[in-house]
Amino acid sequence: MLLLDQQPVPIEAAAERQANPFHEFDTRCAWAAFAAANGLQRSDRAALVDRIDDGLHRIGRNGITATPFGRDEALSCHFGMSASGGVYVKDETGAVAGSQKVRHLASIMLHLLAAEVAGHRRSDEREPLAIASCGNAAVAAATLAAAVEWPIEVFVPTWMDDSFGAWLRELGAVVHRCPRLDDDPPGDPAMFRFREAVAGGAIPFTVQGPENSLCLDGGRTIGWEVAAACADRGIAVPDRAVVQVGGGAFAASLAAGLRGDGPVRLDPVQTAGCAPLAQAWQRVAPRLVGAASVPSDIAREWAEVMSPWPDPHSLADGLLDDETYDWVAVMDGQLAVAPAGRPIVVSEERIVEAHQLATDAGYRVSPTGAAGLAGLLADQDRQPTERVLLVMSGVSREPPGAPVR
Ligand SMILES: Cc1ncc(COP(=O)(O)O)c(C=O)c1O
Asked: pLDDT tens-digit profile of 161-208?
C-alpha cells in the first residue's frame, strides 16, 4: 500500500503539542502534502482543520482531539504484568462519534475541502458522500458530513436497528437498507450498493483502504499519538499491539503510524464468528516466511487468499466485515517485525468476558472495542515483562451482556 510505505520518521519528544492531531501531525499527512502541492500554506491547511472543528461545535459535538493513553494499572494487575511490563491503553471512546473512525474519515474530508480551496472541485456542486456501514463508521461519517454540510448516503444491512437509522437521518444522512439481490455474488450487499453509488458519481467516504486509501492517512494519527506520548514521557513504545480487526484499516494504519518508532508487533484479533483474515493468513503464511511485507504476486491473488466469510456473526458487531478489505496492509503490519505477529481468533465467551473486564476497569466501551482485550485474554504466549498496547474504541451504546446478533 503506497500511502503506508512512506519512509517512517521517528517522533521526537516535544514540550507542547497541539490538541487536534490534524494540526499536530500536519506535515506527516498525505492530505496535507496534496494541499501543499496545490499551494495551500500551513495556515490555509490549519483553517480547514478548524473549519471541521467549528462545524462539529455548531452541531453540538466536540472537536477532534488527541485521546488519552497510558499504562492501565487494573488491567496490568489482572494480567500479572511485572513493573517493566504492562497493559497500555489508548482510549478512543471519547473521540468524535465515539471511535477512531473519525480519524480515517477526517483525512478524506480534509482532502476534499483542500481540493475545493485549490479550485479542483466546486463547493456549490458537491456529489454526495457514500459509505457502507451500520456502526461506528456510519455515525462518524454522518457526523463529519453534517459538520461541513455535505450530503451523504449510508448503505446499511437489512438487520440494522431502526433507531440507528433514525439517528443517522437526524444527522441529515440518506439511509438505504440493502437486501441481498438475486444476482449478487457472495459478499456484503451494502458494499455492492455502495460501489454502485460510487460508480454513479458518489464520493467514497469510507473506511476501507481499497475503496479510498486516504482513510489510511488519518488512521495513522492514532499510532503517531501513541509514539508522541511515549517520546514525551521518555518511555519506549509498546512491544506489541493486540488490535481488533474488521475491514482492517484500523490495524493497518495504527501499525503504520507506529512503524517509525517500533518495532511494535501487530497481532490482529478476530472473532470465531467472522475470521476471514485468520483464514487468509493460514493460506499464505507458509509463503511469507522471511518476508518483510506481502510480495506483490500474493497481493494480486485476492480471490484465492481472501474469501468472503459465509455467515458473519458476533456480539462484536463492528468486526463483521465478511472480507478483511485491507488484508495486505494488515499483513504488512504483521510482517514488519520478526517474528511476525499472528492473528488471534477469540470465542464469543472471550468477547463477553473482555467486555465485562473493560467495563469494570472503567471504559465505556462496546464489545467490538473490547475485542483487542479479548485477544490478550486468549493469548497463550503473553509474557509478564512485555508492554502491550490495546485500543478501547467504540463507545458503548448497550449494557454488557446484550444479545448476539
Ligand atoms: C470500535 C471499533 N474498533 C475496531 C473496528 C475495526 O476497524 P476496521 O474495520 O478498520 O478493522 C471497528 C469497526 O467498525 C470499530 O467500530
From this structure: 888 899 899 999 999 999 999 999 988 899 999 999 999 999 999 999
**Is residue 273 within 8 Å of 313, Cβ to Cβ?**
yes
Give the closest residue to 248 by CA, choosing from 337, 369, 331, 335. Answer: 331
Per-residue model confidence (pLDDT) at position 398: 60
The pLDDT score that the predictor gives to residue 2 is 54
How do beta strands 344-346 and 129-132 pair?
Answer: unpaired
| Cβ atoms of residues 264 and 243 within 8 Å | no
What are the structural domain ranges in the chain?
A: 69-99+218-392
Give the tens place of pLDDT for each residue, 281-301: 999 999 999 999 999 999 999
| Residue 402 pLDDT | 43
Q: Which fold has domain 69-99+218-392?
A: Rossmann fold (3.40.50)
Question: Rounded to the nearest whole angstrom, what is the distance from the C-alpha of residue 250 to the centroid of ligand 1?
Answer: 6
Please tell me the distance from the alpha carbon of residue 197 to that of residue 330, in angstroms, as a whole number.
27
How far apart are the CA of 312 and the centre of ligand 1, in A? 15
Note the pLDDT of residue 134: 77
For 91, the enclosing helix (H) or strand (E) is strand 86-91
For position 405, what pLDDT does the model report?
35
Q: Is the CB of 369 under 6 A from ligand 1?
A: yes
Whether the Cβ atoms of residue 340 and residue 330 lie closer than 8 Å to each other? no
Whole-model pTM above 0.70?
Answer: yes
**253 contacts: CB under 8 Å, gap ≥ 6:** 4, 104, 215, 216, 217, 218, 219, 220, 222, 223, 329
Q: In whole angstroms, give the CA distance from residue 327 to residue 250.
A: 11
How far apart, in Å, are the Cα atoms of 249 and each of 176, 252, 321? 23, 5, 11
Atom of ligand 1 nearest to the CA of 207: 10
Residue 129: strand, helix, or coil: strand
Quick one: pLDDT at residue 403?
40
